[in-house]
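Figure 3 (text version): structure tokens given as input.
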């Protein structure tokens, strides 16, 4: 089974104005199916229905996979994490 969850996340940044910035994405979730797999083996009853794979697609586009794309995404994620923590401090939000 495959489920697609469409998300829209709004970020209020200092220079983005009162509307903020909206980032849209799709999260594709594949579950372990019932029945026999392509290699002739059946999953155990305990595994059926568990999440087998999660993929996030920005603007509906599939991500490029493999080297060097995975490495670049990991590096960009670490830089984004560090920059976000540096820019957005734990401060009270205006009401």
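Below: residues designed for each position.
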């Amino acid at each position: 089974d495959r489920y697609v969850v469409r998300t829209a996340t709004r970020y209020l940044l200092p220079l983005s104005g009162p509307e903020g910035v909206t980032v849209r994405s799709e999260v594709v979730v594949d579950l372990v199916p019932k029945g026999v797999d392509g290699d002739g083996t059946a999953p155990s009853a305990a595994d059926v229905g568990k999440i087998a794979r999660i993929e996030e697609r920005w603007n509906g586009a599939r991500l490029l996979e493999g080297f060097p794309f995975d490495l670049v995404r990991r590096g960009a994620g670490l830089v984004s994490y560090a920059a976000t923590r540096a820019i957005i401090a734990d401060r009270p939000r205006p009401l």
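Residues 69-87 form the longest helix (19 residues).
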